[in-house]
Design brief:
The protein contains 13 helices and nine strands. By secondary structure, it is α/β, with parallel strands linked by helices. It folds into two domains: about 160 residues, NAD(P)-binding Rossmann-like Domain (Rossmann fold), CATH 3.40.50.720; about 120 residues, N-(1-d-carboxylethyl)-l-norvaline Dehydrogenase, domain 2. Strands 1, 2, 3, 4, 5, 6, 7, 8 and 9 form a nine-stranded mixed beta sheet that branches. It holds the Pfam family NAD_binding_11. This is NAD(P)-dependent oxidoreductase. Keywords: NAD, Oxidoreductase. One of its GO terms (molecular function) is NAD binding.
Amino acid sequence: MFDKIAFLGLGNLGTPIAESLIEAGYELTVWNRTASKAEPLAKLGAKVVEDPMDAITEGGLVISVLADDAVLEDVFSMELIEKLGKGGIHISMSTISPETARQLSKIHDWYGSTYVGAPIFARPDAVKAKVGNIAISGKSDAREAVKPILQTFVKGIFDFGEDPGAANVVKLAGNFMIAASLEMMAEAFTMAEKNGISRQSIYEMLTQTIFAAPIFQNYGKLVAANKYEPVAFRLPLGLKDIKLTLETAERVNVPMPFADIVRNRFVSALAKGREDMDWGALALGASDDSGN
């Protein structure tokens, strides 16, 4: 249905997604606020534009992988959505508030286009390996139309129905669970370390046995080494996601005490100047508390 795609946002996730689409034969027009990040895509054949409006074609497809609610709402102005127009589809892969997704969906409806929420569970290396997973929600015809495109760079697509905010509820729940797992591993590994057991050895034993799951195996490597560079997902973005999780929970009167603990770990990490580290660096808080 779509062989040309407008692609907005070329960060750590956006770039490998765009590369995969080009490899799959799609013709991309790309935009990024930091223009230099588009250079690798230009070498692969993508058209680079200086204004996101210039990437949009009426009735076309646009994929956005933008940092947060504010950036997404700024880029997807009334004018841009109006230009996308009747028959157009916007796939938003950002981790944003479900309420922002629902509001954007309404605005798309006004102009005859469709908003599809499709946040991705994947770090950059998982995108490159095409083993990530996507939660998707929005109007059924649009969801079905875009699934073949998404399948070019992920392992699984999980459909959460018509509510355009549902996919982001799932994404926030998942990101909270990852962050809580980081804290859990940090506390356990630090307790073992203070008792004379190496972090690496307990990591290897537990992630090959009772915690043999990707989150523990992959993030556990970072926590075992207590090293959080190179950065795949910056720590301030992790704090943003936990704040959104707590806001989403509060809207429906769900207390999340563990999420409060994780939020405080992120705030503490930022207070200690760790804003340029991977979000896994929240795990350093357990070492700090233990005197290590």
